Amino acid sequence: MDSFSLLMDGFSTALTPSNLLFAAVGVILGTAIGVLPGIGPAMAVALLLPVTYGLDPTSAFIMFAGIYYGGMFGGSTTSILLNTPGESAAVVAAIDGNPMARKGRGSQALAAAAIGHFVGGLIGTIALVLLAPTVASLAVDIGAPDYFAIMVLAFIAVTSVLGSSRIRGFASLLIGLTIGLIGLDEMTGQSRLTFGSLHLSDGVDVVIVAVGLFAVGESLWVAAHLRQKQAKAIPVGRAWLSKDDLKRTWKPWLRGPLIGFPFGAIPAGGAEIPTFLSYVTEKRLSKKHKDEFGKGAIEGVAGPESTASASAAGTLVSMLTLGLPTTAVAAVMLAAFQQYGIQPGPLLFERESELVWGLIASLFVGTVLLLVINLPMAPVWSKLLQIPRPYLYAGILFFASVGAYAVGGEVLDLLLLFVIGLIGFAMRRYGLPVLPAIIGVILGPAAEQQMRRALQLSDGDLSGLVNSPMAIVVYVIIAILLAWPLLRKVIGPRKPASPEHERIDA
């Protein structure tokens, strides 16, 4: 009841005309910036830090929260319409969202994403209010073996469900892990794969890798086929979901927060892991429409997008209660707190009660604004598909280059962008899925760190990787995922015989 009264005080702060305006501006800016490939919510918040220096801290963080939620939806918009995610949490939306757009159902995919963000954000924020202390205590208790097991699960899950060949999936993952090794070893300080370049000592930024593999790789692939195959005008459907669409999406919308919120609260890669796991879950649970996954299943958009939004709320649990950022946006927001002389942690709720509860209340306001503003605008975003493809992808290359250059302000970043873009082009040419490579780059360095910490704690004994109940459970799930194709081959041949016998008996 105390949390409820504090939340009501937060609403009185968030619903003032000025703060409501900042929330709306944040959602619109975040969506607009998220739509541009390569410029995600983390970069948007970072670029706006100097601009908000003169603002009241509460107003600034309300706008940052709007940018966060709006940026995630904007990233899914480009994933669906152009197959070029604006940020890493929107990667999964491209798997089925883009095929839906190519079939003339782009508006339905955008509507499923918008409502998914609303449902996931609403449930995730309610969980943030009710469960923050509990989730924070669980996050503290999770050790290095558990983190490593979760990351291995993400590697196996993404390579198991994408593409026609597991070998190609693991080859793509290996490419990502190799790129993730570039830079200084954090434990020993030794250079790895830097080729004597001081610029590469800090590693290759994830933004450059994601934009290179997706935006540049896709643009080069389209350019290579433009002369051979004339681009057709892609039809755009209506902006609302049919009854059949609602029947297929309401369960994924509700399942998403159950996966996204807990993962968002622990430092295991932000929204990337839970969105992939949500996609895997929806594919496993789907019976009537399993064959549509990868070709335009609306569940493949609804579930991961709801998961991503709930994960954003979960991210704020660790950031506010522990001062522990679990995503790039949370890290930038932590820097913003420090800019105002505020230190997130267990005492934050007592010392800055008005700011914290105003921020949490603004998340509710932001989710509503996200739906109200973006759902009617689905046809507007869909019109991006009607832009001639040469102009469209030339624009994508321009914004991708600007986004990559803005990361570090170095010309070498642009060279890296196009080298990685060529790798993305080659992967498309030889049928390697791009997503495992992205996961390898994002989670590879963290997985290596957690593995080495676990082995250090056990004096090099491999049993140190499986010395907790949670790690054992996760490895059992991994074993089931790896063994499932073999089990299906053993069990499968018996099933087709039954219809034959029924026909003979008839």
Report on the structure:
Helix content is 72%, strand content 1%. The chain is an all-alpha fold and 506 residues long. It has one domain (2-487). The protein has a two-stranded antiparallel sheet with strand order 1-2. Helix 9 (206-226) packs antiparallel against helix 17 (389-408).
| Intertermini distance | 65 Å
* Number of structural units classed as domains: 1
Count of β-strands: 2
What portion of residues belong to β-strands? under 5%
Largest sheet: 2 strands, antiparallel
Radius of gyration, in Å, reads 23 Å
Would you list the SSEs in sequence order as H and E? HHHHHHHHEEHHHHHHHHHHHHH
User: Averaged pLDDT, please?
Assistant: 76
Structural class: mainly alpha
What percent of residues adopt helix (DSSP H or I)?
over 70%
Low-confidence stretches: 228-236, 495-506
Number of helices: 21
What can be said about this structure in brief?
With 506 residues, this protein is an all-alpha fold. The protein contains 21 helices and 2 strands. Helix 9 crosses helix 18.
Top keywords for this entry?
506 residues, mainly alpha, two-stranded antiparallel sheet, 21 helices, globular
Layout of SSEs?
Blueprint: H1 2-14, H2 17-35, H3 41-48, H4 57-82, H5 93-102, H6 106-141, H7 144-161, H8 166-181, E1 183-184, E2 191-192, H9 206-226, H10 243-264, H11 272-285, H12 299-322, H13 328-339, H14 348-351, H15 353-374, H16 378-382, H17 389-408, H18 411-429, H19 435-457, H20 469-491, H21 497-505
Antiparallel strand pairs: 1-2
